[in-house]
Every structure is written in C-alpha cells, then in structure tokens.
Specification:
Length: 71
C-alpha cells in the first residue's frame, strides 16, 4: 500500500487509541494498544462477515435473475 494509506491507517489507530485512553484512564499504553488491536480485529471480522453475506445475497439474486430471463 502507498504512503497515503499508511498515514490514514496510522491516524485511525491513533484516534482509536486516544479515545480508549480517555475512556480507560487507568490503563497503560500496552493495555490501550491491545484493546485497540482487539477492537480493530473485531471490526475487520464483522466487515468480512458482511462481505461474505453480500456475496451470497448477490449469487442468490443473480440466480433469480437468470431464472427469470430463461422463462
């Protein structure tokens, strides 16, 4: 990925870490980093699940359209 992408990701991680640090004032930097990684991993997993579901929905709709065209 290009430098712009890396900078954008770094900003996103920094924003998440700052938000978590404000919400968890007793947590140290390592704990904040781990919480951020877990949150980002959870977000990624949800997006992957949604993408997979949309792929299945698209395949189903394509089948329906093909069946209607074949009539």
């Amino acid at each position: 990925d290009g430098p712009e992408h890396v900078v954008a990701v770094a900003r996103m991680v920094d924003e998440q870490m700052r938000a978590l640090a404000q919400a968890n004032t007793g947590a140290n930097l390592l704990q904040i980093a781990v919480l951020t990684a877990l949150n980002l991993g959870s977000d990624l997993s949800k997006l992957q699940d949604n993408q997979a579901q949309m792929g299945r929905d698209l395949e189903r709709l394509a089948g329906t359209i093909e069946a209607e065209i074949s009539r």
